Amino acid sequence: MKLSLIVSLLFLFGCVAVAEPEKPEVVNTSIIRVSGSQCGPTPSARMELDKLGEKLVASALMKVTPTDTLIVTFFSSPETGEWTVMIDGKNGISCMVMWGGNWRTVRQETGQES
């Protein structure tokens, strides 16, 4: 009798666990953290990159949350190959989040119109 009760309880709890799986918690991984020394007014940050020979080569809109966006800007120097990626906030502050060397530009090919 005890054995059948234990087996029944185990089966019941096992069915409940299968019937109602837990939903995974959604974690926002798009938050970018930088130190204050990497940030400054957008015009000043762009002037500093210009002094280094880096020019704007691309920009894109990044969705941070369903309602918030930031602008990601890419700069590079054709002479040195140095590059910088900045995040431009709506508050007029930009932060340099990545930088490096050996920038290569790839030409996008488009199909011919028929």
Give average pLDDT, whole number: 75
**Number of DSSP-assigned strands:** 5
Number of helices: 2
Provide the succession of SSEs. Answer: HEHEEEE
Rg: 26 Å
Major sheet description: 5 strands, antiparallel
Oligomer: single chain
Distance linking N and C termini: 80 Å
Uncertain runs: 1-20
Strand order of the largest sheet: 1-5-4-3-2
Give the helix proportion (percent range): 10-25%
> Which overall shape is indicated by the principal axes computed on the Cα atoms?
globular
Class computed from helices, strands and strand pairing: alpha+beta
Please state roughly what percent of the residues sit in beta strands, choosing from under 5%, 5-15%, 15-25%, 25-35%, 35-45% or over 45%: 25-35%
Describe it:
This protein has 114 residues and is an alpha+beta fold. It has a domain at 40-100. Helices cover 25% and strands 30% of the residues. The protein is built from two helices and five strands. Strands 1-5-4-3-2 form a five-stranded antiparallel sheet. A hairpin with a 6-residue loop joins strand 3 (69-76) and strand 4. The longest helix is centred in the first third of the chain and has 18 residues, at 2-19. The radius of gyration is 26 Å and the shape is globular. The termini are far apart.
